[in-house]
Every structure is written in C-alpha cells, then in structure tokens.
Amino acid sequence: MPESSERGTPGRTHPGTGREYAAQPFVTYGTDGGSAATVPGLSAAPDAITLEVAPVQTQTLPDAPPAGTPAAPALADLPTGQVTVPQQPEPPAAEMVLEEITPEPPPRPGTVSPSSDLFRQYLREIGRIPLLTAAEEVELARRVEAGLFAEEKLTGTPDLDSQLAYDLDKLVVLGRMAKRRLIEANLRLVVSVAKRYVGRGLTMLDLVQEGNLGLIRAVEKFDYARGYKFSTYATWWIRQAMSRALADQARTIRVPVHVVELINRVVRVQRRMLQEHGCEPTPEEVAASLDLTEERVSEVLRLAQEPVSLHAPVGEEEDVALGDLIEDGDAASPVESAAFLLLREHLDAVLSTLGERERKVVQLRYGLADGRPRTLEEIGRIFGVTRERIRQIESKTLNKLRDHAFADQLRGYLD
Fold this sequence. Notes:
- The protein is an all-alpha fold.
- It has three domains: 204 residues, Four Helix Bundle (Hemerythrin (Met), subunit A); 51 residues, Winged helix-like DNA-binding domain superfamily/Winged helix DNA-binding domain (Arc Repressor Mutant, subunit A, Orthogonal Bundle); 81 residues, Winged helix-like DNA-binding domain superfamily/Winged helix DNA-binding domain (Arc Repressor Mutant, subunit A).
- It contains 14 helices and four strands.
- Strand 1 and strand 2 form a beta hairpin.
- It starts with 9 loop residues before the first strand and ends with a helix.
C-alpha cells in the first residue's frame, strides 16, 4: 500500500523563518489505508482494491514551508517532459486490456469452493476499475518515473537540502500513487493472459498471482517516451512471469528452466513434423531439425514424461489402482516361498534329533528362531558357561548334522 509521508513533528522550527509551528503529517498525496486516494489531475478508481507497495525509507523533514518559498533549482533535473502519443493502430496485444471479463455462470449447488468464491469476488472488484486512456497512461508513467528518480536521489544522497528533500519526497508519494493506479487499471489484462495458461499445472489463482508480479515489474520498467501503449509492453512481462512460474512450480519433480524451454522446443518440432509427414518423428529426425545429438533428444523426451500416481484408477469401473498391477521387486516369488517352507520343515526334522542344549545352541548361533545370530559370548552368558565351551558344543553338533541322513537333502537347497 502506498504510504503517506510523515514529515514534521509537533514543535518544529521552520528553517527559513525560525518560527515554531504545529507540524501535521503530510497526507494530501498519500493514503492512510482503505481505498485508493485520488491522484491529482486524474480520475479516481471507484472501489479500487488495495495493492501492497514496498515502503521505502526517506528522510524526515520539517513540514511544508510557507507560501512564497522558492523551490530548489535542482528539481529541474527531474524527468517532467511532455510526450506526444502517436495516433496509430496498436499491436494486437494492446487490445487485450479492452477485453471485458466474461462473467462465469452461477455454480451448481454443492460445487462451490472457497477459492472460487474469492476469485469471483476478485473479478467483480477489478471489473469496477475504469480503464485508462493513452494520455492518462503517459501521465501516470511519467509520475512513476519521477517518483523512482526522486526515491533514488533520496536514498543515495543523505545530506540533501531540506527544501529539496521535501520536494523529492513529495514526488515519491505521487509516484507510488500513480504506480498503484496504473497497476489497478490493468489487473483484468492479467486475467485475460492467464486464461491461455490454464491446465498446464497451476490453478487460475496461482497464474493470476504470478501475472500480477509481472505487471508490477512492467510498471516499474515501462518507458512511456517510446510511444507504445502500456498494455503492449505489460503483456510480455505478464507472460514471462507466468511461464517462469509454470517451469518452477508446475511439475512434481522440478526441472531447470532452460531444460523446460528445451522440452518445449522438442515438443513443438515433434508436433510440426507430425502435421507435415503424418507420422510420429524419430529422435534422429528431431535431433537433425534442432541441431542436437540423438542422445540429448532422447534424454529430453525422458525428462518430459510426467510421473503417474500409483493410486490412479485403471479400467472403466475404476475399482483397481495402478499400484495394484505393479510387481513388487522386493517380495519373494511363489517358488522361493515354497522352497523356504520346505527348508524349514527339513531343518526342524533334523534339529529334533539333537539334544535340547545342542538344538538351542545352533538356533541361537545362526538365528534360526528369530533371525538374529548371537555371538559365542552371548550364548555363553545365557547358558552360564564360557565361550570356549559353546564353541565346542557348536562344533560337535555340526559334525552330527553332516553325518545325518537328511544332510544330502539339505545340501540341495544350497543350489
């Protein structure tokens, strides 16, 4: 929001006359919240919505000097020249600002979301803001440029004369008001451009938000002296902001912006060659058309693939998810599961022929019971003997198992 200038405090002494006076905050050229103030010399925008403008620190100066005090000569450097707007047809992009926002049909009961209500309210508010004429655009752009110049002068020169600093701060406030008025009058242009990018990964609200940032950038960089209409220039910045947002945010897995641009080039060439030849082009043909290697084109096409959700429904009835049809590589196959069950049965049969102490030592040593092998020292503490004694029991038990009748059958599982 443009901030009002806060010049002067109670009990200030005027630098020229030396008299004390009760200073009042400078609010004639700014706003103190609520609806937008009227820029002197221009028509006001009824019910204008509030836009945030970053505050800029300026110098604190005494109140306005009495009438008759001459202005500082350094103000002659400010850009205040008049510009003649050429009366010639504008490019097609300039006509987009005149496009009225089509009212949406009333929503069906039960389908209204809070975001759609907010967007409809936003459309109603920006629809009440009047458009600007070419002369008004030039006048506002001139004030914006003067405000930016004055702001740079204030922040870059801390020891300015009090009168000059006062006049510069006055221009800063006027420039902020003009910037806000120019932005508000072109908000519907952002909505018009955003309709072209719907369905590419971002919602309409997100596209409008990003486009508004591009519009603010266009207001700050617009050169009214070239004679073009503002909407012609702003359209490029709005589209650039939306394209950058789609490249950064639309994909589940972020791809660098330059790679996204390369993907778009490859897709355009594929579409053009499909229309010309009637068949899908090969990577070799696309690579030759773009002067790229075949490996690079194949890599770009692989990156262009969007990830698919495992919960996506499959089939006409949509009762089966895609994840239900994908094989689990970590799961055991039926053959492996059956072989494992037979191995367990043979092991249990062999171990049942051993004594209780020998069977327990083997099970703990190799983790046959719970899958966690124990060391000799751990087993020794369980039985209350030394680790050497456990090693002897283990060696004796393994010799018995090697001479068992089922030994040949157990060796078959090793293959």
